Amino acid sequence: MIRQRMTGIPPWTMAVAAMLSVQLSNALSVPVIDQVGPAGTAWLRMCFGVVFLWLIARPAIRSLRKKDIPALIVLGVVTGFMTTFFLAAVDRIPLGTAVAIEFLGPLTVAGIMSKQRKALIWPLLALIGVVLLTEPWHGSIDLAGVGFALAAGTCWGLYNVFTQHVGDRFSGISGLSLTIPVAAIATLPVGLPQVIVGEFTWWVLPAAAGIALITPVIAFGLEMLALRRMTHNAFGTLLSIEPAFGILIGLLVLAQTPTLVQLAGIALVLLAGAAAQRGGRRTTEPVATTDLPASTAKETR
Q1: DSSP secondary structure letter of residue 134
Q2: Who's near 137: CB < 8 A, 6+ residues apart?
Q3: Whole-angstrom distance, CA of residue 161 vs CA of residue 232
Q4: Pair 134, 266: CB distance under 8 Å
Q5: Torsion angles phi and psi, residue 281, rounded to 5
Q6: Does residue 88 sit in helix, strand or coil?
Q7: Contact 156, 102 (CB under 8 A)
Q8: How far apart are CA 209 and CA 194, in angstroms?
Q9: How far is it, in rounded angstroms, from Cα 293 to Cα 177?
Q10: Looking at the DSSP assignment, which residues form a beta bridge with residue 230?
Q11: Which tens digit of pLDDT belongs to each residue from 151-210?
Q12: Residue 81 near residue 36, CB atoms below 8 Å
């Protein structure tokens, strides 16, 4: 019944909900970053994410195949460092600007994966909007922050590709419950030292736990479900709305006010994102073979 209800929900709405959740969690992470650093905050989020995911969905360890392991490891590593690099960027540049720069990663994937040349007009329009959002002509952007955002964007592009692959293989969020532990382990060498030397106060742990429930649990789970039913091009270009969400959340939560030029950029990326989701549904939704009876799994292959 739950599966049927989720199938009836348009995939682009799940993607939009995931984007809002990601940006909200990033904005709420700023006070935690001030205490234990960006890497420490990312690592705590991954650790609490493991706890929540294992309480919600038991990892499908018995159903693992050798050929699944590389994709799970890559997805776990890029997930962990996507969060780590992005929080390092947010620590230096405004949230909306960081999201706009990071978006170049999935934007590139959308262009590469597109089979129709006319679909490239939407990533191009989104790119113009991203330039307006970043306002590079001011020359006052922190280069380290830009570098971290670009690194996060590289991870984000890989994340989209491997999330769809893992989502096709594992049902529900069981794949997520396998990749987030990898993310926690991968970011431990950079995250734990910052937690140890940081100004650790009593509210850091409950704050990190609450943020982890939003992202990675809810947000990444919604993204995985959305990617099972959308093409890379449609999903990647729909993500061009995310810089606008970054600006919005930055304004509401962090009091980071956008300029008129950035508002024009928001309008462009919203247009590109809305246009990209048209016809972006995958022709067939893959049936994950994990968590199914043996007889049913054979029938779906």
Answers
A1: H
A2: none
A3: 7
A4: no
A5: -80, 135
A6: helix
A7: yes
A8: 17
A9: 20
A10: 281
A11: 999 998 888 888 877 877 777 678 888 999 999 999 999 999 999 999 888 999 999 999
A12: no
